[in-house]
From TrEMBL:
Record domain AB hydrolase-1: where: 18-254
Residue ranges crossing the lipid bilayer per the database entry: none
MF terms (GO), sorted A to Z: hydrolase activity
SUPFAM superfamilies to which the protein is assigned, alphabetical: alpha/beta-Hydrolases
Protein name per its UniProtKB record: Alpha/beta hydrolase fold containing protein
Length: 261
């Protein structure tokens, strides 16, 4: 299977899994998952528009534009597999894109794994659907200084954001691959009531919820899986929103068990 998109390709001939990162992420955030799944799986995780090394794309940062990008990529992958659909995993905004994609093109998606996001992203169901990060620090002399500046701006742990930090070859020091103003647009584009899209597909679906999540309340997660045929819920009591970081072994086991024939 050819792969030309910027991002992560774990390689090999294993079961292909398209993995879509969330806001502030990049394909490389799934490197640990790919390693834990081993050669039985091939994880394909693109850098999405506005993130990582994805080149600029017109059309803004609404969910439909992200879904357009994923549809084009997945169409190519499915064609290369002789028409056989792929499983799609999505974290946070990536999960919203994943179930939009399944509703739009059920012929491309064989199964869904939705990591810690629900069928609505708005108040009052979600207390803080958008973190306003406009103007946050984007460069620093060292990687450690950049992480400290981000944490001082308003997050307790900058590890997920720092997955997009790279050496600044032009000016020295370290910089982020994304733009903070763009990330506010990305999050705003994901705000909405997406129940019709979540309920619009019938492939098997596994919903992963972090026990300490603030973006997928327990009540909403249970309703989400109860209302959609073929969906089931798996909770990770000790994890927060980034379950694949907080419990990487558990997530790999869940993915393997769900997708292995």
């Amino acid at each position: 299977m050819a792969w030309t998109a910027p991002g992560l390709d774990s390689g090999g001939n294993g079961i292909p899994l398209l993995a879509l990162h969330g806001s502030f992420g990049r394909g490389a955030v799934f490197a640990r998952l790919a390693a834990d799944l081993g050669p039985a799986f091939r994880v394909l995780a693109p850098d999405q528009r506005g993130h990582g090394h994805c080149p600029p794309r017109p059309g803004g940062f609404g969910v439909e534009r992200f879904t357009d990008d994923a549809e084009r990529l997945l169409t190519e992958l499915v064609q290369e597999r002789g028409g056989r659909p792929l499983a799609v995993l999505g974290h946070s905004l990536g999960g919203i894109i994943a179930y939009h994609l399944a509703a739009r093109r059920p012929d491309l998606v064989s199964a869904l794994i939705i990591e810690d996001v629900g069928p609505v992203m708005r108040r009052p169901e979600i207390e803080r659907p958008v973190l306003d990060v406009r103007g946050w620090p984007a460069t620093a002399p060292t990687r450690e200084a950049l992480a400290a500046a981000i944490e001082a701006a308003g997050v307790p742990d900058a590890a997920y954001f720092m997955a997009s930090a790279v050496p600044d070859e032009e000016r020295g020091g370290w910089r982020l691959l994304f733009d903070w103003d763009t990330m506010t647009e990305v999050q705003t584009g994901g705000v909405g009531d997406w129940w019709p899209r979540w309920l619009g597909s019938r492939c098997p679906a596994l919903v992963l919820r972090g026990g300490h999540s603030t973006l997928l309340p327990a009540v909403l997660a249970r309703e989400m899986t109860a209302r959609r045929p073929g969906a089931r819920l798996l909770e990770f009591p000790a994890a927060g929103h980034w379950i694949h970081d907080d419990d990487p072994v558990g997530v790999a086991e869940a993915v393997r068990g769900f997708l292995t024939p």
